């Protein structure tokens, strides 16, 4: 059996047993690989960093999407930046209110590899979706007052996704939102010191250009340290409102396959331990 | 630099860069090692499994102790099973109500190594404490109606701590409790399938011999999968009562060094994701 190693803080790392490399290609942007592992099913890596495993991906995709989609009173127009594996789209299309989704992925190789190797994971053909193969930063810069929710499903702030944590991108997202719109972004592990500056930059950018920032946490075993953060920002929508809670409760009852997100669980996820709150002050 | 590897599910594992092995001894029970790592300070391992690092131990020790000590109306008499590093004791003695602590550790080598190498971490000399070097299972079997809180701070249910997850030990704990007493135990990661039977056994034993079981979760990056569970059980004390909440709030205000536990955070920790709740049903 081969080993996959990902180092995230000094020599600290995750190791996976690899039975077979199912796909490996250098795209224009990154090395894209799909590994058959011994304990987590198939795993997608980009530039040697785990993006998802079949067994734990539900946490990331449910928590990136449902909190905002349940909080917004009428989430009709969505934009997804990144998320080439289709998992974020899969969760979004469960919401009946959604009328259109602009999906912007920089790297077509990720989409094609995911379609071939994770056939049950992603959704790629929902008729409400328009796919744009281009840099999400350029795409968002051209939009104005268009989206109810923008979901930023990028990789770590090194390589092609670096700009997704920067002030001018978040300012462009703010400009691309409808009044009352929401931006959600993945925002790294609060335990990994090297990403603290990026987390702080993102938090400050969301605060100054949008306002109402709610960071929250979830458990993702194959991401560095096993705990991951996300941030939601909206000038007017309160993700902890009773509307959001009741909508989430009804939504989860209709979708018993949902295994991490819940109305109570999301509220709980926003109760940050003091050591995490201190990262933003 | 050397590497430390811990495997927890197939070939899935954690790797740490090791600058120096500070202590290594085979005790009567287990291999006890203290490693100087590159990113997490000193790390204590037992039989090759990480017990704590200097940088993340606060989570485990705060979450094992404060939820029950804040919930119990008058936690005078405590018993700690295990916890040879002294971290659990350090958190317990912050509570003024505590009058006596029976501390039962099977392996004196763990205590001596911790005293030498983690001088600031553990508390070993609080005058309220009586140390017993013996098997906690034998010790508890001799007690009756004695403790307000029993804290089970054992290692994984393989090796010397295996019995701490079993029905007859929990039954003995129930017998050792004062009326209205509480038992708290660490209970492994909900992501690691091989320990699901032990978690279920522990949950069922706590339910049948004590009642009122509250499982809760916390983030511990150097434990397998980064998410850890604990369980609290009491026939009469509700850890989510307003008394518990208000006591926790006041306690944390008096102890600004507390970095993970909080009144809101503990309530949040009890909101289990559906995939975790399903482990117990």
Explain what you see.
Two copies of one chain form a homodimer. Chain A has 281 residues and is α/β, with parallel strands linked by helices. Chain A folds into two domains: 2-53, Spermidine synthase, tetramerisation domain (Spermidine Synthase, Chain: A, domain 2), CATH 2.30.140.10; 57-280, Rossmann fold, CATH 3.40.50.150. Helices cover 30% and strands 32% of the residues of chain A. Chain A is built from nine helices and twelve strands. Chain A has helices at 57-71, 87-92, 108-117, 136-141, 167-176, 196-209, 242-254, 263-269, 274-277, and strands spanning 2-9, 12-26, 31-37, 42-46, 49-53, 77-82, 100-105, 129-133, 147-153, 177-186, 213-219, 227-234. A seven-stranded mixed β-sheet of chain A has the order 8-7-6-9-10-12-11. In chain A, strands 1-2-3-4-5 form a five-stranded antiparallel β-sheet.
Helix content of chain A: 25-40%
Major protein interface: A-B, 45 and 45 residues
Radius of gyration of chain A (CA) equals 18 Å
Structural class by SSE content of chain A: alpha/beta
Number of strand elements of chain A: 12
Strand content of chain A: 25-35%
- In the CATH classification, which architecture of the largest domain in chain A applies? 3-Layer(aba) Sandwich
Averaging pLDDT over every residue of chain A, what do you get? 96
CATH topology of the largest domain in chain A: Rossmann fold
Taking pLDDT < 50 over at least 5 consecutive residues as the criterion, the unreliable ranges of chain A are none
* Strand order within the widest beta sheet of chain A: 8-7-6-9-10-12-11
Quaternary state of the chains: homodimer
At the first level of CATH, the class of the largest domain in chain A is Alpha Beta
N→C terminal distance of chain A:
46 Å
Count of alpha/pi helices of chain A: 9
């Amino acid at each position: 059996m081969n080993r996959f190693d990902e180092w995230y803080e000094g020599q600290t790392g995750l190791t996976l047993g690899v039975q077979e490399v199912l796909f490996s290609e250098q795209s224009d942007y990154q090395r894209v690989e799909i590994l058959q592992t011994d304990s987590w099913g198939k795993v997608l890596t980009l530039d040697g960093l785990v993006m998802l495993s079949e067994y734990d991906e539900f946490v990331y995709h449910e928590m990136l999407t449902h909190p905002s989609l349940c909080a917004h009173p009428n989430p009709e127009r969505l934009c997804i930046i990144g998320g080439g594996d289709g998992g974020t789209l899969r969760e979004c299309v469960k919401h009946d209110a959604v009328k259109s989704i602009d999906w912007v992925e920089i790297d077509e190789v990720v989409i094609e590899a995911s379609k071939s190797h994770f056939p049950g994971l992603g959704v790629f053909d929902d008729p409400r979706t328009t796919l744009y193969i281009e840099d999400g930063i350029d795409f968002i810069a051209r939009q104005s007052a268009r989206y109810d929710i923008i979901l930023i499903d990028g990789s770590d702030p090194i390589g092609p996704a670096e700009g997704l944590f920067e002030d001018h991108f978040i300012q462009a997202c703010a400009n691309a939102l409808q009044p009352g719109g929401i931006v959600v972004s993945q925002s790294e592990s609060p335990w990994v010191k090297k990403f603290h500056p990026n987390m702080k930059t993102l938090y400050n950018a969301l605060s100054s250009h949008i306002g109402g920032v709610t960071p929250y946490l979830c458990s993702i075993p194959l991401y560095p340290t096993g705990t991951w953060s996300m941030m939601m920002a909206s000038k007017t929508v309160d993700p902890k409102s009773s509307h959001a809670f009741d909508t989430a409760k009804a939504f989860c009852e209709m979708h018993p396959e949902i295994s991490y997100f819940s109305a109570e669980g999301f509220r709980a996820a926003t109760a940050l331990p003091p050591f995490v709150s201190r990262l933003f002050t």
